[in-house]
Specification:
The protein is mostly helical. Helices cover about 70% and strands about 0% of the residues. Helix 3 packs parallel to helix 5 and helix 15 packs antiparallel against helix 16. The termini are far apart.
Length: about 425
């Protein structure tokens, strides 16, 4: 009974009231008083989950690895599954993508036995799987994971958290693939679900992420009023207990500004986002933010950092980010063409995204078409720029038309 009360109180403080440190203290005190080993291990797992969600990834991984590495009693499966979920979220955030994928795979084998007893567990494991794929650059795989999660959620209409989570992820996945109108549709539905059923599964816990993604998609669509309102909502809805989603909000702020024509300020925002990612340990987001800076004209300032990350970091896109930065910094047209082809081979959105965002057709020549497609790829991998790259040959920097209405005129340009 003491263990159940400890967990209930900690959950209420953490998820309901956003009083993270008090929740941690409740778990610490409860763990000292509880003698049953199974319950003590359960409290350790919850603590690891709280640490991961509140952005203390390294501490979470150390705690969870220790828990999962020692011999456990027979009734450990629920605790093990939850611990694996938390480990996958933390590992993905720090850029340990292979470790995250392994934890997700192991958790997926266990979760069917506990889905009815712990309904949120399966959804959170799929969130971890989705996040791992998205940060690794497997955008179509991430979209498929989000779609499967939504299909399952539709069958459980009494659980708004599932619908809100799956709609948010489908919206983000659509945005990353350049399907902006689909993104808006999914994110509006996610926003509606957020207010439809507060309670134990309080879907409001994801309000900031959903609002940020809505702002990003609206910015891509040229709806600056909606983008501004949704970004303000996301900023106001930040929670210490949901710090794991903060990098997405920061990245959105970059592109809401960029689509309004403030590209210089947006480049500084991207650099600050990269610095914050490194300082907070959210290392998977550092190369994304640095690549945003490349697309906003700061290639020379980040080319060395991206080159180092290409050697150190996991993920199939970091090498492309580094190559793009080097080619842009050198104004090397042939290399930019090669980067374009490589982004295309990575399998992101089609050239139609460039048309949708900029209101014009891609060039008809084979090289121009490849460049236009590359612009679309660059703009959606894995956090799409609304200012796509359209490289020119070495005689000049690459000029990048902004979306209509994003600046003084529809032909406003920034240098990338």
């Amino acid at each position: 009974m003491r263990a159940r009360l400890t967990m209930a109180r900690a959950f209420s403080l953490f998820w309901g009231l956003d009083r993270v440190e008090e929740a941690m203290e409740v778990l610490t005190e409860g763990g000292r008083a509880i003698t049953d080993r199974s319950w003590r291990e359960g409290i350790v797992s919850v603590r690891g989950r709280f640490l991961a969600h509140s952005g203390r990834y390294a501490v979470a991984l150390e705690l969870l690895d220790e828990l999962l590495g020692r011999p456990q009693p027979l009734n450990f499966e629920t605790t093990e599954t939850a611990a694996l979920m938390a480990k996958a979220l933390a590992a993905a955030s720090v850029g340990s993508l292979a470790e995250a994928a392994a934890a997700v795979k192991r958790a997926r084998r266990l979760v069917p036995r506990w889905h009815e007893e712990v309904p949120w567990l399966g959804e959170m494991i799929e969130l971890a799987g989705y996040l791992t794929q998205a940060l690794d650059g497997d955008l179509r795989g991430a979209a498929a994971t989000a779609a499967a999660l939504h299909a399952a959620a539709v069958e459980r209409t009494d659980y708004p958290f599932s619908l809100m989570l799956s709609c948010t992820l489908r919206g983000q996945a659509s945005r990353q693939l350049g399907q902006v109108q689909d993104a808006l549709r999914w994110l509006r539905e996610g926003r509606r679900q957020a207010g439809s059923g507060p309670g134990e599964d309080d879907s409001g816990a994801l309000t900031a992420l959903c609002a940020a993604e809505l702002a990003h998609a609206a910015a891509l669509a040229g709806d600056h009023d909606l983008a501004g309102r949704a970004l303000a909502e996301a900023q106001a809805s930040r929670r210490a207990s949901q710090a794991i989603f903060d990098p997405w909000i920061d990245i959105t702020a970059t592109w809401v500004g960029a689509t309004r024509g403030a590209t210089g300020q947006a480049a500084e925002q991207a650099l600050e986002c990269a610095r914050r990612a490194r300082e907070t340990g959210a290392l998977a987001y550092e190369p994304i933010a640095l690549h945003d800076a490349v697309r906003l004209g700061a290639a020379e300032r980040v080319v060395e950092q991206l080159g180092q990350l290409a050697v150190q970091a996991e993920g199939q896109l970091v090498d492309l980010y580094a190559a793009h930065a080097l080619a842009a910094a050198r104004q090397d047209g042939p290399s930019l063409d090669q980067v374009a082809a490589n982004f295309e081979a990575a399998g992101a959105s089609s050239a139609r995204y460039l048309e949708a965002c900029q209101g014009r057709r891609p060039p008809s020549s084979s090289r121009g078409t490849r460049r236009a497609r590359a612009a679309s790829r660059c703009s959606s991998l894995p956090v799409p720029a609304t200012v796509p790259v359209r490289p020119r040959l070495p005689s000049s920097s690459s000029a990048v038309p902004m979306p209509a209405g994003s600046g003084p005129s529809s032909t406003s340009a920034c240098k990338v």
